[in-house]
Design a protein that fits this description.
Blueprint (H helix, E strand, L loop, with lengths): L17 E6 L6 H13 L5 E6 L4 H7 L6 E4 L2 E4 L4 H10 L5 H11 L3 H10 L5 H8 L5 H13 L4 H4 L2 H7 L5 H14 L5 H6 L6 H15 L6
Parallel strand pairs: 1-2
Antiparallel strand pairs: 1-3, 3-4
Helix pairs in contact: 4-6, 4-7, 9-10, 10-12
Length: 228
């Protein structure tokens, strides 16, 4: 049964990713994407391709929350709009990488698509660890770093963010002061009492910026999340 809101496993080289395409009769870009995905199936780059005409099956479109077409998945990725054959091939290749989801989120953030990245994480809480992969990424671009911070703020006090508690505690001890500071702040955003010892430990950090973050983090930890 078609269920694009369940995050597929990362494809392995011996197991090509699958794709699901939502289209509509009269959609100008849908035939291009359909042809591109079909060719990838013929080439063995995609394992399966499921196609849904949202006019024939509006119930499936509503269930999946599809508002525009073409909308499609390739492995763990959710994509929309016109994509060239070369772009589709690139996404298929990316689906094989162990950092597939973090790179997907990074691209969303670099393109200024913060809302889409947040929506993806809300639909797929199992993708949350990919945010911390971006936090640890040494060569991360400024839009990625700012985006990670914005996403963490947007998810403040949520079970999704709380699920990262143990790893955030570990990252608060990173040799990199930037990572220590960010992790300490994100611990505060969990509003989980178990984060307090790790935050308090940063009050004695060698880096003055980290110490300042820890002071602010303790105050934020005790403040009820917005909207609570």
């Amino acid at each position: 049964m078609i269920s694009p809101r369940t995050l597929p496993e990362i494809a392995m080289p011996e197991h090509p990713p699958s794709a699901i395409l939502y289209l509509a009769t009269g959609c100008p870009h849908c035939p291009v994407v359909l042809q591109g995905l079909s060719d990838l199936v013929k080439q063995g780059k995609l394992g399966t391709l499921e196609v849904v005409n949202i006019q024939a099956r509006p119930d499936l479109a509503q269930q999946a929350g599809i508002r525009s077409v073409p909308w499609f998945t390739i492995g763990p990725f959710e994509l929309e709009g016109l994509h060239s054959p070369a772009e589709l091939k690139e996404w298929v290749a990316l689906a094989h990488r162990p950092d597939a989801v973090s790179e997907y989120l990074a691209r969303r953030l670099r393109e200024g698509q913060l809302a889409k990245a947040e929506a993806y994480l809300r639909r797929h809480p199992e993708a949350m660890p990919a945010l911390l992969d971006l936090l640890e990424k040494e060569e991360a671009e400024l839009p990625e770093r700012l985006g990670v911070n914005a996403l963490m703020e947007a998810l403040e006090g949520s079970p999704r963010l709380a699920s990262l508690l143990d790893r955030l505690i570990a990252l608060s001890n990173s040799p990199d002061a930037r990572i220590r500071g960010d992790a300490t702040w994100f611990l505060a955003l969990t509003h989980d009492a178990r984060a307090r010892p790790a935050i308090e430990a940063r009050l004695q950090d060698d880096n003055p910026d980290v110490r300042e973050v820890a002071e602010d983090a303790l105050e934020r930890l005790q403040r009820p999340p917005a909207g609570s």
